[in-house]
Write a structure and sequence with these properties.
The structure is a single chain. The protein is α/β, with parallel strands linked by helices. The chain has two domains: 10-159, Phosphoenolpyruvate-binding domains (TIM Barrel); 164-205, no CATH class. 48% of the residues lie in helices and 11% in strands. It has eight helices and six strands, in the order βαβαβααβαβαβαα. It has helices at residues 21-33, 55-70, 84-87, 92-105, 118-127, 145-151, 161-180, 192-205, and strands at 10-12, 38-42, 77-81, 109-111, 132-135, 155-157. The chain has a six-stranded parallel β-sheet, with helices on one face. The longest helix is centred in the last third of the chain and has 20 residues, at 161-180. The chain starts with 9 loop residues before the first strand and ends with a helix.
Length: 206
């Protein structure tokens, strides 16, 4: 992926693929070795139910990651995620407490996926001085890019939304074919020429 584009590439690194702060720091160093320009580290565990790390441990994990990023000698954007609101394991007040601590620990960017609405997103933005990332999902899908930017958000993620829209289209087409024996919906398909032109344009830009 890094070789395929001249643009900086950031990775979604879940919980850093480790629990201990030192191991998360090693993940950052390995990410840099393959050429990434940044990555996200979550504060919830990658096990059933996605329980949150205890507050102090969550902060220490980000501090270790930030220290590792600073030691690289080149720009590397560390995004500290407070995922408990999305996963239903803590409330917005706790998320704000965590991102404020993550900011003090050295994070470059903070991210609270899917706050309940626009007002809650404003609270997140107002709570910290560093840039905030927002996910265009849930209630925030009703907002446009300019509207999200006006709130103060500096980066917008799509997460898995494009893939999910694609999966929904596949399911709808196949249901029509298998259930109704109808191919009528296939008329909405993109032409091969259009897709080839997009691929060629992307290759030329690379």
């Amino acid at each position: 992926i890094v070789r395929a584009t001249p643009l900086p590439v950031s990775g979604d690194f879940e919980n850093g693929f480790a629990d201990a702060p030192d191991d998360v720091a090693e993940t950052i160093r390995l990410a840099a070795e393959v050429g990434l320009s940044g990555c996200s580290i979550e504060d919830t565990q990658m096990v059933e139910g996605n329980p949150a790390y205890a507050f102090d441990l969550a902060v220490e994990r980000i501090r270790a990651a930030a220290d590792a990023a600073r030691s690289l000698g080149r720009p590397f954007i560390l995004c500290a995620r407070a995922d408990g609101v999305m996963n239903g394991v803590y409330d917005l007040d706790e998320a704000i407490r965590r991102i404020q601590a993550f900011e003090k620990a050295g994070a470059d960017l903070v991210y609270v996926p899917v706050p309940p609405g626009e007002a809650e997103l404003r609270r997140v933005v107002d709570a910290v001085a560093i840039p905030v990332n927002a996910l265009a999902a849930g209630p925030l899908r009703a907002l446009t890019v300019p509207e999200i930017a006006a709130i103060g958000v500096r980066r917008i993620s799509l997460g898995s939304m494009i893939a999910r829209v694609t999966h929904a289209a596949i399911a709808e087409q196949m249901e029509a074919i298998v259930r109704d024996g109808s191919f009528a919906k296939l008329s909405a398909a993109a032409s091969g020429d259009r897709i080839n032109a997009m691929l060629i344009a992307g290759a030329d830009e690379g």
